[in-house]
Amino acid sequence: MSKKEYKRVTTHSLKEMKARNEKISMLTGYDYSMAKIIDNSGIDIILVGDSASNVMAGHETTLPITLDQIIYHASSVVRGVKRALVVVDLPFGSYQSNSGEALRSAIRIMKESGAHAVKMEGGSEIKESIVRILNAGIPVMGHLGLTPQSIYKFGTYSVRAKEEEEAKRLVEDAKLLDELGCFGIVLEKIPAKISKIVTSSISSPVIGIGAGSDVDGQVLVTHDLVGLTTEFNPRFLRRYVDLNEIMTKAIKNYIKDVKNIDFPNQDEQY
What we know:
Layout: H1 11-19, E1 24-28, H2 32-40, E2 45-48, H3 52-55, H4 67-78, E3 85-89, H5 99-113, E4 117-121, H6 127-135, E5 140-145, H7 151-154, H8 164-180, E6 184-188, H9 192-201, E7 206-209, E8 217-220, H10 222-225, H11 243-259
Parallel strand pairs: 1-2, 1-8, 2-3, 3-4, 4-5, 5-6, 6-7, 7-8
């Protein structure tokens, strides 16, 4: 598998990577400091996800985050990124009502944050909104399968597209998004065999999360990957380090040193 070095990853780069069978790496980012680390590590895509509602603000779902808040997070991320493609979630309520509202929301994200693309959950039901945003010159990434903004409709975070009818509809929606011109599609929490069918059926790169290995790339929430979160333990999550434990130990040592007047020492004073 050949690998090409990109000074700046673009939507075109991602299509090239799919054509070369080079896997695409994607992580979430919500602030300048973390985005800088992720970007310097060589990630391809940074998603300013509406998951900020969970990991940054402590909400139970992704629904409460507002357009203003996602723009704040996105602009913070953009300032820390030199290489990765920055994609921003259109938050719940900013595009579902009508296509005009969707276009206004997407334009605000692009103008006010400096991000490179937006991501939207849904298939044929948001076709008109996707077309209007694409016609305005804004790249769109799709999102099918488990769509967290629709959690109250589904009533569960369990695997989607297990039944034949739902699987068939998902494949049709993926083909539609590809035909409309979406530069990529996220598939969340669906059977690996369905992801494989979708990936081989469309020209756009497919990024999976809990969707098996037969896709063009993978995405995880950074806070989950580095162990800052502890209560979220789905099967698809691999924790690469336990920062919760490392940080807790460091902070406890700091508290101890402050209490014992060991910090600051003579070398740490002016």
